[in-house]
Amino acid sequence: MSAGETSAVVKADAYGLGAAQLAPALAAAGCKTFFVAHLAEAVELRALLPQARILALNGLLPHAATDFVANGIIPVLGSLQEITLWRAEALEVGRALPAFLHLETGLNRLALPPREFEKLRMDPTLLEGITVDTVMTHLLAADTPKDERNRRQLQDFLAMAAAFPGAKRSIANSPGIFMGTAFHLDLIRPGAAIYGLNASPIQPRKMRQVARLSAPILQIRDVRLGETVGYGGSWTAERPSRIATVGVGYADGLHRALSNNGIAYFDDTPVPLVGRVSMDLTTFDVTDVPANTGDLLVLLDSRHGADELGQEAGTIGYEILTSLGRRYQRRYIGA
Predict the structure, then answer these.
(1) Using an 8 Å Cβ cutoff, are 67 and 39 in contact?
(2) How far lies 225's CA from each of 33, 234, 239, in Å?
(3) 133: which of 44, 102, 125, 169 lies 20 to 30 Å off by Cα?
């Protein structure tokens, strides 16, 4: 593992699992640096973690610098405009202000583009009043470790980072961590890996599942041969069947794309999802198991995690977790 620092990415409510509960647990385990996306997320996190180093990945909007300073939030600066705003704020408060500097190496989203990087490299006075703690970039193909672009990004980033002597360096997100120690540098930024998602899909799962999702059966309906289930009648019983309805739907993160696809577990037996997933209800074929009203069907666990459910829905586990709605009763338990 990295010889440098391990941070934690807790944006999007800790990937849908609850930043208010998970971030303090991570801090108690020794994590000191936390990343979120937006300033609003950072301010909420500051109330929970008064001593932590908190960074907002989405940068610095005009008129937001005062709120960053007031709450002790460090911006990740990705443009000369943002650098100018932060420099002006440093002048206003009369002291140097810390920042991370985000360098563009191929992803072409939020980061200092090459032309602006060259201006900054040629004129270091543009950073007066700013303490560049760390320079960072983001991998574009880390989920495909053999993609040669990963190595090129690392080489380009190291060359660019040399323009900021004394600054620490960070490139590895969750999948990047598993591409070897060359990518670890001074700070790694795991997010998905913390929450049990497979950070390197072409490799065997290395992460222990941390989320379990179950729902009680609201009703079991006897369906005759030839009858249909759900909106549009998209599933037809090919035998006399027992259909269990649970109170979870696409409003709760069980994607509509799972209609007539996907599974749940009754005890140790998988049962198929049948019919369309609707907003609040989903139906499963429990003909072959002794299920009754009130029994639990397990939608996510170590056997059938967010990665598998995402694959069945034609998406990724990240989207499954971050889609989990607020209607679940949540319980947080120790390891």
Answers:
(1) yes
(2) 58, 14, 5
(3) 44
Respond yes or no: is residue 119 known to be catalytic. no
Nearest Cα neighbor of 249 from 275, 270, 267 is 275
Cα angle 176, 177, 183 (rounded to 5 degrees) comes to 75
Which distant-in-sequence residues (6+ apart) come within 8 Å of 275 by Cβ?
A: 228, 229, 230, 231, 234, 235, 243, 259, 260, 282, 283
Per the CB < 8 A criterion, the answer to whether 16 and 253 are in contact is yes
DSSP state of 184: T
CA separation for the pair 216, 293 (Å, rounded): 7
Q: In 3-state terms, what secondary structure has residue 40?
A: helix
**Could you give the percent of the chain with pLDDT greater than 70?**
97
Phi, psi of 31 (to 5 degrees): -70, 135
Q: Summarize pLDDT for 15-63 with one digit per residue, the tens.
A: 999 999 999 999 999 999 999 999 999 999 999 999 999 999 999 999 9
Q: Answer for the pair 158, 138: CB distance below 8 angstroms, yes or no.
A: no
> In the predicted model, is pLDDT for residue 201 greater than 70?
no
* CA 199 from centre of chain: 11
Computed over every residue of the chain, the mean pLDDT equals: 95
CA distance 127 to 123: 8
Domains of the chain, start order: 5-195 (3.20.20.10), 213-323 (2.40.37.10)
Residue of 119, 231, 328, 332 marked catalytic = 231
pLDDT in tens, 212-246: 999 999 999 999 999 999 999 999 999 999 999 99
Residue with the bigger pLDDT between 203 and 45: it is 45
Quick check: is 11 catalytic?
yes
